[in-house]
Design a protein that fits this description.
It contains three helices and no strands. The chain has 103 residues and is mainly α. It folds into two domains: 38 residues; 62 residues, no CATH class.
């Protein structure tokens, strides 16, 4: 008999493969429209805030910080605000004024 936790783990694993594959396909489609003069993209830097948050969460839970999961909303809001400002700065710097789209 298959346990419900095993079934949940398997479905989470399969859906994560689906999501990751969707990102890969989308990136390949966007790469088809790149011009040689376009500036380089540094999308891999988006991993840094997430990895820092997960490391801090892990270390905090390892050393006995209680109710650490309730702190997450403030950090997520801060990270999202930082990424939004970073995106706006990059848009202002690299996009011509006629093509600048405001979020």
């Amino acid at each position: 008999m298959v346990s419900l936790q095993g079934l949940a783990l398997a479905s989470t694993f399969v859906s994560s493969i689906n999501i990751f594959g969707g990102f890969l396909v989308t990136q390949r489609m966007l790469d088809m429209f790149k011009r040689p003069t376009d500036p380089a993209e540094h999308n891999y830097l988006y991993v840094i805030p997430g990895a820092a948050y997960l490391a801090a969460y892990y270390l905090g839970s390892m050393y006995g910080a209680s109710k650490l999961h309730q702190v997450g909303n403030a950090e997520c809001t801060t990270v999202i605000s930082f990424l939004r400002e970073l995106n706006n700065d990059c848009l202002e710097r690299y996009c011509p004024t006629g093509h600048l789209l405001e979020p």
